[in-house]
Write a structure and sequence with these properties.
The structure is a single chain. With 199 residues, the chain is of the alpha+beta class. The chain folds into 2 domains: 96 residues, Alpha-Beta Plaits (2-Layer Sandwich); 94 residues, Alpha-Beta Plaits (2-Layer Sandwich). 21% of the residues lie in helices and 33% in strands. It contains 4 helices and 12 strands; from the N terminus they run E-E-H-E-E-E-E-H-E-E-E-H-E-E-H-E. The chain has a 5-stranded antiparallel beta sheet. Strands 10-11-9-12 form a 4-stranded antiparallel beta sheet. The chain has a 3-stranded antiparallel beta sheet with strand order 2-5-4, with no helix packed on it. A hairpin with a 4-residue loop joins strand 4 and strand 5. It starts with a strand and ends in an 11-residue tail after the last strand. The relative contact order is 0.21.
Length: 199
């Protein structure tokens, strides 16, 4: 099963900083298969945070979905839609992107169910071990995200020393919970540096 990213240009004046659930809900309303697609993930949107806690997206911001290849063409139908998130998220042209096998990958927010860092690392290691992946990792900043069922808590996480096959495997499967809310999705990182600097 091949996993790819589908990347869209986006425009939005203001988003709530904690927008993961609202974004997923809007996407699920536009793509009626997204909720039932177990392997699907929604990358977090990044931008500049204002003093009142809003998120401003720059011209290079992208909405990215991680999907099985068979769903990529269907997802491209999002182009031209406006989602009811923040001040309104306008979705521009999209394109399919292959996953890249970097030896170091990074996730902005991984949630395993624990807000204790030592326990979090133990749970992440166990999940990696179960998947046959190495447990070489560095945790970073604590994060939280609201959902109707309660708050997700976790940390940023960098995995390093991966072979090409291992890198693609962890990017394809993700780690922890909340994949559709922007959690546990890994992207290539150029080197092992302080994870806090990668935020």
């Amino acid at each position: 099963m091949t996993i790819v990213d589908v990347s869209f240009e986006v425009r939005c004046e203001r988003l709530p900083r904690d927008h993961g659930y609202a974004l997923y809900e809007a996407l699920a309303g536009a793509l009626d298969w997204l909720e039932d697609e177990a392997s699907a993930g929604v990358h977090p949107l990044h931008g500049c945070t204002t003093s009142d806690g809003a998120l401003l997206l720059g011209p290079r911001a992208r909405l990215m979905l991680r999907l099985v290849e068979a769903r990529a063409e269907q997802a491209l139908a999002l182009a031209g839609r406006r989602l009811d998130v923040g001040s309104g998220l306008e979705i521009g042209p999209g394109k399919r992107r292959e996953l890249m096998p970097y030896a170091t990958v990074y996730s902005h927010f991984v949630s395993t169910g624990s807000e204790d860092e030592a326990e979090f690392l133990g749970q992440a290691a166990a999940e990696l071990r179960e998947a046959g992946l190495p447990e070489r990792m560095i945790s970073g900043r604590a994060h939280s995200a609201g959902t109707p069922e309660g708050e997700l808590r976790g940390f940023s996480l960098l995995l390093h020393g991966l072979s090409p096959a291992q890198s693609l495997a962890v990017q394809a499967r993700g780690l922890g919970r909340g994949r559709k809310l922007g959690c546990g999705i890994f992207v290539p990182h150029k080197s092992v540096v302080a994870v806090g600097a990668a935020e």
